[in-house]
Amino acid sequence: MNAAASAADTGxxxxxxxxxxxxxxxAGGAMAYVPFLTILLPVRVEAMAAGEDVTWLAxxxxxxxxxxxxxxxxxxxxxxxxxxxxxxIATGLLLSCTLLVAMAKADGLAMLLFLLVVxxxxxxxxxxxxxxLAGDFVPDRQKGFLGGLLAFSPALGAASGALVTIPGLAExxxxxxxxxxxxxxxxxxxxxxxxxxxxxxxxxxxPRLEGERDPRPRALVVRMWLARLLxxxxxxxxxxxxxxWLRSISSDIGDDDAAQVFTVVLFVAVPATMLVGRWADRxxxxxxxxxxxxxxxxxxxxxxxxxxxxxxxxxxxxxxxLVASIFLALHSAQTLRVLPRPQHRGRDLGLFNLTNTxxxxxxxxxxxxxxxLFGFSGLFLVLAALVTLAAILLGSVVRxx
Length: 401
Known about the structure:
single chain
């Protein structure tokens, strides 16, 4: 009996210490970019742009998305080739934190844009091998639990943004330093103290004879990629235009109300994702929750399109945010299960990361094409059709082969 079969038969599980420290590191990865891209960068651009903040923010969003996409693939591939995830994570952590603090020294918008692109490259030097690390050490029987733990990442990313912007806590430049310190405190423990239990079967290349296709069907990988892309387009649109949509229903709502709804949804999603993930592990049904969540996301978008009042609109968004968060967290974990070749895990995860960055390029054009003519209701119905397609793509898949 080979090592892979032996490990599978004993039903060994990764240590809880590694799982928790990895979840903390993943949350640190979210803290590295959520506060900066959603709050600190727009504030800085607005102060420097002299009325052209929208244009410069568009430049920053586009250049940052391109840099993140390409560097994530590149550093994932490099971590595959060198077989040294930890070294790349540590180097990326050091460089990204240093560059984040250096943003305070930018004396013009061109310099700020340059630093942003370089920072994105350094950040993805950390994020790409960090994502692959879970595939190296978390067995399939714990992928649902991993997905539940990953639900903490967006919640803590949003919480860190709220923390550093508490009035009177810190000056704008000091906020960047605080974020860098928080990121380091979250990521370093997994490098220093995790000591994961090895699972040889997770690192063995999938057997492939000359002329044969990969033993795991490529169609499943393609479905997983397309489904996440479609859901992420909807999620990106709501992330960008939630406040404006709510204001179009009732002018009484304030920006703090929208932020509170967003934060509550993220934190409620954490225990919900853990419950669904544990169910998927116990029943060995990894893909079914993804299909159900995608379908419910479509239902929520239809309800949002038809919402006649603010309370109903917020309830519909609450459903959308909850099931979309569950979908995205579990999808990140289950993607590790379906990738066919562990020797290219980092590179392949970089290709999956395009589903996170491409929507930010697609969403503005889709919104501008739909909202002026059909209002937000028309946009939401289009998004509902997209996520319903995602549900159909996954609906016939019970478990990966």
